[in-house]
Amino acid sequence: MKMENSMEIEENKIRSAYIHIPFCKKICSYCDFCKNYYNENVVKLYLEALKKEIKRNYKNELLNTLYIGGGTPSCLNYNELDVLFEITKLFKLSDDCEFTFECNYEDITDELLSLLKKNRVNRLSIGLQTFNDKYEKILNKKIDKNLMIKNVNLCKRYFDNINVDLIYALPDEKMDDLEKDLNEIIKLNVNHISTYALMIEKHTILYVNNFKELNDDVQSKMYYKIVNKLKSNGYDHYEISNFSKKGYESKHNLNYWKNEKYYGFGAGASGFVNKIRYDNTKSAYNYINGKRMIYKEKITKNTEINDYVMLSLRMINGIDKRLFKRKYNKSIEDVFDYKKLINDKLLIETESNLFIPSDKLFVSNEIIIRLLDSYILNK
């Protein structure tokens, strides 16, 4: 009994924090994240508010991951970055803490990289999205293939742990277009690649301009082309949208997918602390004026179980059945009746894991919904 309580206490510890910097010099047409045009006066006030939020809510835990995202954190000038990194010194970071900073490839310079390295950043995430300049106008994003290659190679002189993002299923994109993007991204020889099908969300320029997503059949073919191409070039497919070389999985994102606790600081950030999920306002101005948290929900045990299952099944190894039992004091087969999903070859069960077969990953959402609908505990 004491050992189980000890495990529960350990699992409830917060080991990760996310900081959102919602400023950009240019707004991409597909972006649905919290963002504002860069304004020096607003940035100053925002960083002051960020420091207040962290000092008020951070409880001095030792963090294993810290992630600064956006927006475009690299659009801050060097004085503002100095202020930001002074704020991050409020955190206690483990010796091997994974500290990620998101960069726009156009912002990358020796000076920026030196500043990041000096302040304990050890992982970069660079939003390349595509090398194909025919999408420059559609995405409202500068696409300069030569500069992308040059600056990623510059980053490799300073950092070993680099992620680049690839968007596929762009308007009218053909398989040949995707093949060229994949060939270019593989040649970069970075250790982590994140891939995302274009989703046209409300409140984006693409939505307002009435662009449509490619149909599911085309998206599915593109998805499996990406999977096969990256796996054949030495990348481990460890999560639905993520690929890495051995040992370079994103520790921060794995924390999310394992449904562990984390802080979210800044406008548009979300967190999971003390059985409470929360969202901060997406308005930088409300955030600056102290109107920060706009949503808060106490998570019941049943909801936490569902969240754990939903997030775990994003990982290629799926649900760790022994960890499930340790966390919830129930075997997963006592909570969900998933025999039909196994018979239908939509789930695979081993002694230790329950996971979605590789050829069904594209329809994982439907499988997860069916599994959650099979909930039998207390029925």
Describe the structure.
39% of the residues lie in helices and 22% in strands. It is an alpha/beta fold. The strands form 4 sheets. A 9-stranded mixed sheet has the order 9-10-8-7-6-5-4-1-11, sandwiched between helices. A 3-stranded antiparallel sheet has the order 12-13-14, with no helix packed on it. A hairpin with a 2-residue loop joins strand 12 and strand 13 (276-280). Helix 2 packs parallel to helix 3 (78-88) and helix 7 (175-188) runs parallel beside helix 9 (216-232). The model is unreliable at 1-10 (pLDDT under 50).
| CATH-level-2 architecture of the largest domain | Alpha-Beta Barrel
The averaged pLDDT comes out at 92
The biggest sheet, with number of strands, parallel, antiparallel or mixed sense and barrel status, is: 9 strands, mixed
Q: For the CA atoms, what is the radius of gyration?
A: 21 Å
Number of domain units: 2
| Helix/strand structural class | alpha/beta
In what order do the strands lie side by side in the largest sheet?
9-10-8-7-6-5-4-1-11
Q: What do we call the CATH homologous superfamily of the largest domain?
A: Aldolase class I
Beta content comes to 15-25%
**Distance N terminus to C terminus?**
27 Å
Proportion of residues in helical segments: 25-40%
| Structure annotation, total helices | 15
* Quaternary status: single chain
Please tell me what the overall shape is. Answer: globular
Q: What is the β-strand count?
A: 17
Q: Regarding CATH, which class of the largest domain?
A: Alpha Beta
The CATH topology of the largest domain comes to: TIM Barrel
